[in-house]
Amino acid sequence: MGRSLLFISVFATAAILMRGTGFAEATFSTIAGNGAAGVTDGPALSASFLFPYGIAVAQDGTIYVSDFQGERIREITRDHQVITIAGGGSVEPGTLRVPGGYRDGPGLQARFYHPAGIALDSKGVLYIADAGNHCIRVIDHGVVRTYTGSPATPHRDGTLATAGFSEPRSLAFDRDGNLWVGDFGVGLREISADGQVTTVAIAKINFVTSISFEPDGILLVNDGQLIFATYNSPGNYSMHPPGGEGESEAGISAGYAFQVVPLSNEKYVYTDPREQAVRASFPFAHFYQPLSQPPNEDYGIYGGGYRDGSGTQALVEQPLGIAPLSANSAVFADAGNRRIREVRGIVTRQFSHPSNPMGDYGDATRYYRVLLLGNCYLGWGIPFESTLGGMLEADLNKHRQELGIPREVRVALAWTGRASDVHDYVRDVASSGAIDLVVWEFNDAMPDEEFDPVRSTVTSPLIDLATWQATLPPKVADIGKMLKSAGIPHYVLLQPTPLYFPEIERYDTRLTFFIPKEPPKWPDVATIYESMFAGTVDGSIDAGPAMLEAEASSNRSLLFVSDGEYQLSVPGNALLEKLVYARLAHDKPWLKPQP
Prior knowledge:
Blueprint: E1 5-8, E2 16-19, E3 27-32, E4 42-43, E5 52-57, E6 63-67, E7 72-76, E8 81-87, E9 105-106, E10 115-120, E11 126-130, E12 135-140, E13 143-149, E14 158-159, E15 168-173, E16 179-183, E17 187-191, E18 196-200, E19 208-214, E20 217-222, E21 225-231, E22 260-264, E23 267-272, E24 277-282, E25 287-290, H1 299-302, E26 309-310, E27 319-326, E28 329-334, E29 339-344, E30 367-374, H2 388-398, H3 400-403, E31 408-416, H4 419-429, E32 437-442, H5 453-458, H6 465-485, E33 490-494, H7 522-533, E34 539-542, H8 544-552, E35 560-561, E36 567-568, H9 570-587
Parallel strand pairs: 30-31, 30-32, 32-33, 33-34
Antiparallel strand pairs: 1-21, 2-31, 3-26, 3-29, 4-8, 5-6, 6-7, 7-8, 9-13, 10-11, 11-12, 12-13, 14-18, 15-16, 16-17, 17-18, 19-20, 20-21, 22-23, 23-24, 24-25, 27-28, 28-29, 35-36
Helix pairs in contact: 2-9, 4-6
């Protein structure tokens, strides 16, 4: 008791940030509910719900659902039947709700008033946050009883018999068997295994809709903001919310979280009822990827929809509770559609930890694993299949037989802020056996804020060129040595930034503070970069001539999206992909014996 929590962003900044998406590969399907308003039990797809809210999944695969307006707890059995296990009552004429009540007793005789979040303990006993009755209920061997709180008890700490709650909405057990409660309007409550109820007082944490646990802390959603808390630390916190008007660093709306659950290490999935989406998040990447069809700015105003299928086609409406099914799948309450749905194929192509750089595609016996290193130009805010990495993966697999590639190709995108970050990352990854080929997209922003030859010689110098040449090239050479020693082919793609192109490619005013009156010529800069990489890579690819030729074309398309994120456009990604593919197809590094 008396535990202090240190709140930190679960999307904390890291030296290596990964980019990529599982968006196109996710698929949605309905497992229960016909969409009509009702409380009918029966075959799963014929059953009806009024307002499904909370979700919990037992170890045997049984799914439990709280029907917030149906005032009952439903079970979806493994043989695809929906049955009511607790609560009851008929839909009130002229409404779409069942009158609430409060009664303990055998399951179908018991009554609830707005059952919300639910959770299973280690023995499979189901606990319910009975929000309207201001208490926590439990179903044990088919009998409903009040665990703590009551409709008449005000909010207060104490024992199970004396404690009271305001409006409990969410529940979760920690690894020690303590039950945590998101008490709406109050904050975070802890019910210890020995029956003591305590309020964990933290400023501004008072509208908790989601609680889940990880080995080293607690994951919360507070008023749409997702935060992480570690135990036994000073009681201060900071947040990096995906809520409100925020956007991810990928330029994708982060939405308004309702419930979040971890699927595996560094992979989370959460519901967003405001923008009608189910989203995956990859913590250290500040990345919130819509798995259902991405909403536009006004999507929440116009409502969602109902459609199963791939992530590019699926529609949801007011998704609320969500629970993991596996490391790549989850089940959620699609409340607005009055259905229970699942999303499968939540795969990641990015991890912030070098022990698993290929995410879900790390199996060396199944995949030829290409790691694409780069920075923000790699395609922020663009579906994976439209990025350089996605198109390269598709092209290499399409021509795999004729190119002699031994296994199916998978490409992971790793965003690296600076060249020194690449050095440290490669140091950790090179000997892991986790990758087969590295392609490093290198541009002026890579040594930015560190050692930049362009700014050193053309604009106000950050450091002198001699210092740059004495420091960065040796690091680059060391990167090559580490990869060569590990037998990993290594290519570098030299990519000009908007600095070398007409004003239309760098219209963002935030760029003007460092753009000189007479920008440097790319061939001069490319020569510097070429000399730096000489002898350290298996091959270098100078994208400058092709990009300049594309700029001069009569049917040109913008190569960059200079909206403050400085990423390549889809046509820009496509142009670079052609260059990389051509070089790899020519060299066939997968056929060459490695030391």
